[in-house]
Amino acid sequence: MTNKYYEFFCPVKVVAGKAALEHIPFELNGLGAQRPMIITDKGVRAAGLLEPVITACEESELEIVSIYDDVPPDSSIAVVRDIAGIYRAEKCDSIIAVGGGSAIDTAKAVNILVSEGGDDIAAYSGAGIIKHPLKPFFVVPTTAGTGSEVTAVAVISDTEKSVKLPFTSSFLLPNAAIIDPRMTLTLPPHITAATAMDALTHATEAFTCIGKNPLSDAYATSAVKKISENLLSVMDNPKDADGRLELAQASTMAGIAFSNSMVGLVHALGHATGAICHLPHGLCMSLYLPYVLEYNLESIREPLGDLLLYLDGPEAYAATPANRRAEAAIAAIRRMRDALYKKCKLPRTLKETGQVEESQLEAIAALALDDGAIMFNPREARLEDAKAILKKAWA
Q: Where do the Alcohol dehydrogenase iron-type/glycerol dehydrogenase GldA domain residues begin and end (predicted)?
C-alpha cells in the first residue's frame, strides 16, 4: 500500500518535556517578539494552566501584553474579529495559544487577520489563499488528542450562515509546539480517554488509509505504541507526569502522521455526527473506529495486522497467526474501549451517549458522504454502506 510518490512536511519545532514551558521566552526572543498575546478559554484559565506560562515569561522579563480567555468551544468569525481588534489595539507582535482544538484554531485564524489585514476572516477561507508567513505563533496544547499544534488547518464557524469555514495553509503552522505534561495533569478522566482515542484514530487512519507513506507510518506506529502502553495506567494514576508526557507526545506524533497522510471514513462519520448531534469529536472517533476498521478490513488487512504489534505488544503479535492479526488488532481496540467504559463510562455505542436518536442515522450517513476525509478511505463507501456502519454502532 506504499505510494510510489508522496510528500511529507512538518517544519514545526517541538519543545517537549517537564520544563518545556520555561523555553517559551527563548523561542519568542529568537523571532524578535516582545509583546505576546495569550489566546485561551475560561476553563484553561480556571484550572490555573496559564500561571506557569505567565511565570516563565515574567522571570525572563517578557511581558504578556494581553490575555483573551473567552474562546468558546465552537469558535466563530465574530470571536476571531474581536480578538484581532484587541491584538491591534494593544500593539501585540506574537500569539501564544494555550488550550485545546478550539483555542488553537481560533489563534490560527486571528494570526491570519493580524498578519494579512482586514476584518473578514471568511475572505481567507480555503486552500492556498494565504501567500506569506504570518506573525510569530506558539501553541501550548492542554489536551492530548487533537494534534492541532502540528496541523496546517483550522475550522471556524460562520454562525449566521450555519457553516464551518475551513482554512488550509502551511503558513498556519506554529513556529513551535510546546509539549509540557503539566498542562494535562488536571484533565478529567473522560476527556483524557476521549482525546487519547482521538489521537489513536488519527494514527490508525493515517496508517491504514490510502495516503500513507513510510514517514507518516513511523510517526503513526510510534503514536499507537505510546497510547497503548500509557493510556490505561494514566486513567488509574492521573498525576503520572511521565505517562501524561507520553500521551501528549503521541498526540503530536499522530498529528504529524495524519496531516501528511490524511484520514478516512471514521473522521467523515465523526464530523457528520458532531455537526448533527453535537457530540465531542474525540468521543465520535472512539465510537466509530472499530466499526469502520471492520468495514475496511479486506482492503487494509496487511497494515492493520502490522498495527497489532503496537497495540498489543510483541508477544501477542508473535502468538497470533499472520492471517488473524488484523482481526486481533480490532479486538485490542475494542478491549481498550471496554476498559475505558469501566473507568469513566466513555460510551462505546451511539445509544450509550444518550444524545443520538436512531432517526438521525440517515442524515448522519448522508452528510458523511460529503466530507472530504472520505476521499482517502481505502474502501469506497456509498450511502447504504454508511448507514449499515451507523446501525452497527448504534447499539
A: 11-181
Quick one: pLDDT band at residue 380, thresholds 50, 70, 90?
Answer: very high
Cβ atoms of residues 326 and 350 within 8 Å: no
Report the alpha-carbon distance of residue 209 to residue 230 in Å, rounded: 25
Contact between 75 and 43 under an 8 Å Cβ cutoff? The reply is no
pLDDT (0 to 100) of residue 275: 86
What is the pLDDT at residue 158? 85
DSSP assignment of 137-163 equals EEEEESSSS--GGG-SEEEEEETTTTE
* Cα separation, 311 vs 228, whole angstroms: 6
How many domains, in total, are found in the chain? 2
Cα gap 380→393, rounded to integer Å: 19
Q: What are the Cα distances from residue 283, in Å, to 195, 251, 259, 390?
A: 8, 15, 20, 14
**All 3 cell numbers of residue 119?**
476584518
Amino acid in position 367: L
- Give the largest CA-CA distance in the chain: 65
Give me the DSSP letters along 252-304. Answer: HHHHHHHHHH---HHHHHHHHHHHHH---HHHHHHHHHHHHHHHHHHHHHHHH
- Structural domain boundaries, residue 221: 187-394
Mean pLDDT confidence for 263-271:
96
* Half-sphere exposure in the Cβ direction for 307 (13 Å, CA): 32
- The percent of residues in the chain predicted with pLDDT above 90, rounded, is 93
Residues 232 and 316 in one domain: yes
In-domain check, residue 8: no
Assess whether 220 and 369 both reside in one domain.
yes
Distance CA 144, CA 127 (A): 27
pLDDT score at 116: 96
Burial of 128 (0-12, 13-18, 19+ CB in 10 A): exposed
- Torsion sign, CA atoms 48, 49, 50, 52: positive
